[in-house]
Amino acid sequence: MTLAANAVRWLAGRKVIVDGVSVSVKPGQTLGLIGPNGSGKSSLIRLLAGLRAPAEGDVLLDNRKISGFGRWELARRVAVVEQHSMTEANVTVLDVVKLGRTPHRSALSPWTDADDDIVEDALVRVGLTDRRDQFWHTLSGGERQRVQLARALAQSPVVLILDEPTNHLDIQHQIDILRLVEDLSITTVVAIHDLNLAARFCDRIAVLSEGKLVTCGPPTEILTEKMIADVFGVEAHVSTSAHHGRLHIQFLM
Ligand SMILES: Nc1ncnc2c1ncn2[C@@H]1O[C@H](COP(=O)(O)OP(=O)(O)OP(=O)(O)O)[C@@H](O)[C@H]1O
């Protein structure tokens, strides 16, 4: 499915937080959202996920306004993992991941073997099968992040929207999670701070600054020394890695 924001604007009170942003992601592709703290990435993520309505502009899923989708109808297509996803205490990892199946079930439909298989597959993918009975409130930050991703995967979405999915993860789990998302080959939007990971895993990158879209395109066109200096105020050296052929960004400190 194609997900697109068309000149979306969102305000908190009178303050413009997302200012006329247009971005789109083609089926199976990954769009990275980068930008300094407070540039509007999470706010745009919420608009794209349909968690908030734009004051102006539209979010479209295959050319249909997401405001026209019913709650469950949208949740069967779009899964979102927010930065600080919380859940009720006294629930286990398995309980949280099972919640992902909710949009696919009606009050009358019983839990099926197929639901079990999907939940199991999600736990396997994030490497948490041995934690299924652990209580949520006892998990580390990185483990919670992986559980929330498993919950999103159990939703069997065609569009996955992730707000900084790697920020609590050690380097191995950062790479594992982004590889997992890459292998899913579904339409993905990911807000991410690590420019090297963005260069490696995103098909296109949108740069936000003060709520506005600065530029959008393939990593090789977007992640330039000039853009990094202009938007992030940091001097960087950008080269092509001899090891993986993608961009390698070194910050000159
Ligand atoms: N509900 C709100 N009320 C007031 N201000 C808000 C609200 N939501 C967001 N903002 C402000 O909007 C700006 C953008 O916030 P947002 O969380 O979208 O940025 P971000 O790019 O995701 O930041 P970070 O990289 O720090 O996570 C920030 O200055 C934030 O304080």
UniProtKB/TrEMBL annotation:
Cross-referenced Pfam families: ABC_tran
Residues of the ABC transporter domain: 3-235
Domain of life: Bacteria
This protein's record includes keyword Secreted: no
SMART domains to which the protein is assigned, alphabetical: AAA
Keywords: ATP-binding, Nucleotide-binding, Transport
GO molecular function, one term: ATP binding
Similarity comment text for this entry: Belongs to the ABC transporter superfamily.
Name of the molecule in the record: ABC transporter ATP-binding protein
